[in-house]
Automatic annotation (TrEMBL):
One of its GO terms (molecular function) is ABC-type transporter activity. Residues 684-714 form a coiled coil. Signal peptide: none annotated. Keywords: ATP-binding, Coiled coil, Membrane, Nucleotide-binding, Transmembrane, Transmembrane helix, Transport. The keyword Membrane applies. This is ABC transporter domain-containing protein. GO terms for biological process: fatty acid beta-oxidation; long-chain fatty acid import into peroxisome; peroxisome organization; very long-chain fatty acid catabolic process. Residues 461-693 form the ABC transporter domain. PROSITE patterns: ABC_TM1F, ABC_TRANSPORTER_1, ABC_TRANSPORTER_2. Belongs to the ABC transporter superfamily. ABCD family. Peroxisomal fatty acyl CoA transporter (TC 3.A.1.203) subfamily. InterPro entries: AAA+_ATPase (IPR003593), ABC1_TM_dom (IPR011527), ABC1_TM_sf (IPR036640), ABC_transporter-like_ATP-bd (IPR003439), ABC_transporter-like_CS (IPR017871), ABC_transporter_sub-D (IPR050835), P-loop_NTPase (IPR027417).
């Protein structure tokens, strides 16, 4: 009791001043660190970080093996392993800003615990002076009370602030890493969405799940580290007042509580992971509606979409309700144990120094009273001070213990978010290395059995016995053969047209050239990516200005760097007959949702404008002029050829034959195909036949017109 009975002396006042000085110093250090990071422009708070190198990805591949998706989610060894793996991303080394934040955070946590002890002692002293009727000491105590309030409140705010900064720091590092892996040169995002079914709704993973993981991790540190520290320090203080027996009792109490809570805690981790998935599904359903609003409105599909959204929401809410129901009994048990059972136990402990002073290892109350004067008031005051101080320490201890127990629940939830974030990272790593879903499979066209070769940097596009296969992932990962051992060679100027019925695999050929689909067998030789430009069937308009639409995928910076001007862009728009657009839309800088502004034909013409802007050596044009009027289409094809672009056109339109030298016909008959040169005798004969049949039809038009006039006059006579 010596520590507690000692009045706050000049020495402890000095300590308090030191505390204030220390807090200011820490704040200054934090501000300085922040400033340094800002000036380096590599701050995780600005969201600006250096790109993750391929070397880092190679090293990390080993620590991110794909886990068994059916493994139990919870606080277990797998959770520890996953968290350790993610820690290599959020703490790449010890001289990061996050490490500094963590140290500062820890220092403030220690400071807060220390201040709590000081407050407990001061509280006891003030109440004692009040009971003793010592006005002067009472006022002095109040003075100290206000003095301690300043560093105490500052410390609390700093803890919250540093926790948020830590969370943002983690999030920025993780998001940057995921973006670098997702949008890598191997086009992993395409594989995630189209070739591999393990990640559904990658957007939900990258936005919400990563944020929740970071928030929970940052708060868990303070929710776990602080109560642990508090428990240690308060226990130390209490040993002095309630004795070793009391402290032993406290320890047993903790142990029993922890075991009990662990036994009754439901698997919050798994529940959190399912909730995150259902949230993702609900959000994805809304995103679909936004993306396809016009089509849905035309079809009058609101009712059906309504029911789809309702179903997604109901699934989510049912699950959340289940969690709430599970929580009722768990929370009741938790509250009973931590609030009521612990309070009763705490009051019992507080009574030890009063009823059993020898057990508490202290001088008896009578002896203490005798040494401070035999006056009854002094005796009561001494009791009161001891009780108030112990009670406050016990309340803090109970609070700390309670939070430690509560954080088990948080830990379980963190396990859920960790499994989602780890799942995302491990699958991105696998796809980055072209390792697809499904068991090892030696069957032909299995995604786990890719044997073809791709050679880059060749002037020409050359297929050497390459089967075109629609890939399939999952348990039955054998793809479907569309075109059998394709062999062709498109040399500069040897424009090729690919034709054939719907669904035969025309676009599939383009996908293989673009390396979106794998070369299962044979060899594909092609120029570097920068020399081939693809215009897909569905026009894509990006976020940004009108200029950004024409120069896509260049940014304005890229455009300026390459010395291009708006005047040149205007010339290009003239070629595609869109010269009126900048004036109509209010200039190059205008920002709009362009997909809703342009008509179908205009969108396709913007696609051709991009081709002329980038001026590649080769262009793969996939039905990209189907909505453009024939005359403008012809002009654009002629212009592309004049620019020296070698064309590989996918189309059904015979009108486009004349701009090409070869034709690849995909028949759809068991992957058969044929190549022919345009302008051969057979070709001319077939065009001749088509002309004869058209002329015959034109003759019919005249007789049909005459018949129509006759019917009209008959009808008017009758009327
Ligand atoms: N991601 C995919 N995974 C598996 N199969 C696919 C995938 N995308 C397309 N397919 C299938 O591959 C086949 C060929 O498709 P492709 O888009 O190449 O047809 P197409 O000849 O260009 O047809 P159209 O003239 O209608 O554009 C189709 O049966 C299609 O369903």
């Amino acid at each position: 009791m010596q520590l507690l009975s000692k009045p706050i002396s000049g020495h402890s006042w000095l300590q308090k001043n030191k505390t204030i000085a220390l807090s200011s110093l820490l704040a200054a250090a934090a501000a300085a660190a922040y400033q340094t990071q800002r000036t380096k422009r590599k701050s995780t708070n600005d969201g600006v970080l250096e790109e993750t190198t391929q070397d880092v990805f190679r090293r990390h591949k080993k620590i991110f093996p794909v886990s068994d998706l059916n493994a139990k989610v919870g606080v277990n060894n797998e959770f520890k392993r996953q968290l350790k793996a993610i820690a290599t991303i959020i703490f790449p080394h010890w001289h990061t800003k996050e490490a500094l934040l963590l140290i500062l955070h820890s220092v403030f946590l220690i400071l807060r615990t220390y201040l709590s002890v000081v407050v407990a002692r001061l509280d006891g002293r003030i109440v004692r002076d009040l009971v003793n009727g010592d006005g002067k000491e009472f006022l002095k105590g109040l003075g100290y009370w206000f003095a301690i309030a300043i560093p105490a409140t500052y410390t609390n705010s700093m803890i919250r602030y540093l926790q948020s900064k830590l969370s943002i720091g983690f999030r920025t590092r993780l998001t940057r890493y995921v973006h670098d892996l997702y949008l890598d040169p191997q086009r992993t995002f395409y594989k995630v969405i189209n070739l591999d079914g393990r990640i559904q709704g990658a957007d939900q993973y990258i936005t919400t799940d990563v944020a929740k993981f970071c928030d929970t991790l940052a708060s868990l540190y303070s929710n776990l580290a602080k109560p642990m520290l508090d428990t240690l320090i308060f226990n130390y203080q209490l040993v002095k007042s309630i004795g070793v027996v009391g402290t032993f009792g406290l320890t047993v109490n903790y142990f029993v509580t922890a075991r009990l809570l662990r036994a009754v805690t439901p698997s919050f981790g798994k529940l959190a992971a399912i909730e995150a998935k259902l949230e993702g599904d609900f959000r994805a359903a809304h995103t679909r509606l936004i993306t396809n609003a016009e089509e849905i409105a035309f079809y009058n599909g609101a009712n059906l979409e309504h029911s789809i959204l309702d179903r997604a929401y109901t699934r989510l809410i049912k699950h959340i309700n289940t969690i709430y129901k599970i929580r009722i009994s768990y929370n009741m048990f938790e509250d009973f144990l931590i609030k009521y059972a612990w309070s009763a136990f705490g009051l019992g402990l507080c009574s030890i120094p009063v009823f059993l002073p020898d057990l508490a290892g202290q001088r008896s109350v009578a002896a203490a009273a005798a040494s401070e004067g035999s006056d009854e008031n002094v005796k009561v005051g001494s009791h009161t001070r001891g009780f108030i101080t112990n009670k406050r320490l016990l309340i803090s201890l109970a609070d700390a213990g309670g939070r430690m127990m509560y954080s088990y629940k948080e830990l379980a939830e963190l396990a859920g978010y960790t499994s989602r974030v780890y799942g995302l990272l491990s699958i991105l790593h696998a796809l980055h290395a072209s390792e697809y879903d499904g068991p090892e499979d030696a069957r032909r066209f299995a995604l786990t059995n890719i044997k073809g070769k791709v050679e880059l940097g060749i002037d020409g596009i050359k297929f050497d016995k390459v089967p075109i296969v629609a890939p399939s992932s999952g348990p039955d990962n054998v793809g479907e053969l569309l075109v059998n051992d394709l062999t062709l060679d498109v040399q500069p100027g040897e424009h090729l047209m690919v034709t054939g019925p719907n669904g035969v695999g025309k676009t599939a050929v383009a996908r293989v050239i673009a390396s979106l689909w794998p070369v299962f067998e044979g060899k594909l030789s092609k120029p570097y990516d920068k020399d081939i430009f693809y215009i897909p069937q569905r026009p894509y308009l990006s976020l940004g200005t009108l200029r950004d639409q024409v120069i896509y995928p260049h940014s304005y910076e890229d455009m300026k760097k390459s010395g291009r001007t708006d005047k040149e862009l205007m010339e290009i728009l003239k070629v595609v007959h869109l010269a009126y657009i900048p004036d109509r839309e209010g200039g190059w800088e205008t920002q709009k949702e362009w997909k809703d502004v342009f008509s179908g034909g205009e969108k396709q013409r913007v696609g051709m404008a991009r081709l002329f802007y980038h001026h590649p050596k080769y262009a793969v044009l996939d039905e990209c002029t189907s909505a453009v009027s024939t005359d403008v289409e012809g002009l654009m094809y002629a212009h592309a050829k004049d620019m020296g672009i070698t064309l590989l056109t996918i189309s059904h339109r015979p009108a486009l034959f004349k701009y090409h030298k070869h034709i690849l016909r995909l028949t759809g008959n068991q992957g058969e195909w044929e190549m022919e040169a345009i302008g051969t005798k057979e070709q001319k004969q077939s065009i001749g036949k088509e002309m004869h049949s058209l002329e015959a039809k034109l003759k019919e038009v005249e007789s049909l017109k005459a018949r129509l006039i006759a019917i009209d006059s008959e009808l008017s006579l009758k009327v």
